[in-house]
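Reproducibility note. Readers wishing to regenerate the assembly model reported in the main text can use the exact inputs given here. Chain order matters: entities are listed in the order in which they were concatenated for prediction.
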Amino acid sequence: MNARIFVGDTRFDAIAAGDRGVAYGDGLFETMRACRGNVPWWDAHWSRLQRGAQQLRMTLPEAAQVREEAAQLLSGADAVLKLIVTRGAGGRGYAPDTDATPTWILSQHSLPAESPGDGIAARWCETRLALQPALAGIKHCNRLEQVLARAEWDDTAMRDRDALEGLMRSTEGDVVGATAANLFVLRDGRWLTPRIDRCGVAGVCRAWVLGELGASEVRLGVTEVETAEAVFLCNAVRGILPVARLGGCTWPLHPQVSALRERLAAAHPGFVINLAANNPETT
Amino acid sequence: MNARIFVGDTRFDAIAAGDRGVAYGDGLFETMRACRGNVPWWDAHWSRLQRGAQQLRMTLPEAAQVREEAAQLLSGADAVLKLIVTRGAGGRGYAPDTDATPTWILSQHSLPAESPGDGIAARWCETRLALQPALAGIKHCNRLEQVLARAEWDDTAMRDRDALEGLMRSTEGDVVGATAANLFVLRDGRWLTPRIDRCGVAGVCRAWVLGELGASEVRLGVTEVETAEAVFLCNAVRGILPVARLGGCTWPLHPQVSALRERLAAAHPGFVINLAANNPETT
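Running the prediction on these inputs yields the following structure tokens for the assembly.
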């Protein structure tokens, strides 16, 4: 993993023992798709980071420096760029230091393998998401629920071995999204996506899709997902992921989902790559 | 801060950029009171860590090495000893690596200032605790709720400026405990403490108190706390903290709380220091 670590504007080799990121998950992150060294959705990611920082009353590093360091790290690559910002060092105890200097970590990762163009397999997770309006929407670093959910299955287990993602419900039973993606379903000609006012993440790709589809934010139950005409997941790294199978349910690729994927490829150059997977000759 | 960092059995100078502790708060911690370099409740802390590791399916470092390093770090001091164990490095993505080597951080901190012997001031926090049975009881590193709650007041704000602790309710309104301590109340001659099956931490001092008082674990409302005959908080660093004031309610020091504090001092040599604060001549 290629990474750079900073405290304020100064580069360090590693993270300090007293960092509140390690102690309490007291931080925020963004996972971005870079195309030839650029991050087309940079502004949307930075805006979400700002909303998170406001909610957690955290200081962010200087935007221009983060962007410049990201460009240097990427040096023209097609890659995943991850940015973590923690509240910084703060000794022992929950009370945050309002003057703390943030720690930030940029890391570059390989793009994920192409997923099947006609859709992915997904599963239902047993781990539920707790209702916490004070943290809903933002991409904070308290992610044990997602870690537990993702640990429910792996590539080697016979059951669900081909599942790329798992759908999560809240502790009250409503469907919130996947472990690392947002969810959209088509019902009666309307696109719907779960509200994220009590838990879940306001995905950057989700925001783009909401605008494109004029989708409605609603509470969705399991049956409403399973009986939908089409289902897809989305995130800012993988783009649009049609769901072909979910437990015992199957869906053919819906023309509206194909069309949306083409619009995304036109809007964000990084996602052209994903479309190649639709063509059997290139896979 | 005096600290030592390890990955598996090897010492490092700092924490790696890819550590899952920083990325997701994917870890556990213990905060212990050391008395002349010993940790009298070491076994209870280690047992809770083991329960947490089982719940999160994490590997722990070798107990003997941790204890030996802790003793070296403390070198006979009266201090607070903090141990963080993370799942280790794991790249990008929520899926935990079952073979990950844990990162662990030992740090030594000053003992907190003595609190008034006749009781502390506390306040009600606005930040609520989400109901998450999958994480309840264990001392994991997803602590943004506590950080937000503790940030509600500080020593310089006029309102609540003398509050040492804040009581937290769940999102359903039941009282769970303080930001960094468990809660006990006396009602109709019975000692009660909140259940921690949906949120909250199974404190090491709480377990000792439960045994000493034969207390019952119940759901408690705000009114049941405010109309109690006596209220105290406890944790493994500060011991028994009688509550003298909570919002508009006040309590004189209850003889049963004084007696419990004396029993704790007899059971755990570190807490003898706290008793000195009862004596006005020494404060």
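We highlight two features of this model. Helices of chain A lie at 20-24, 42-56, 63-74, 144-150, 204-213, 222-226, 255-267, 272-276. The longest strand of chain A covers residues 27-34.
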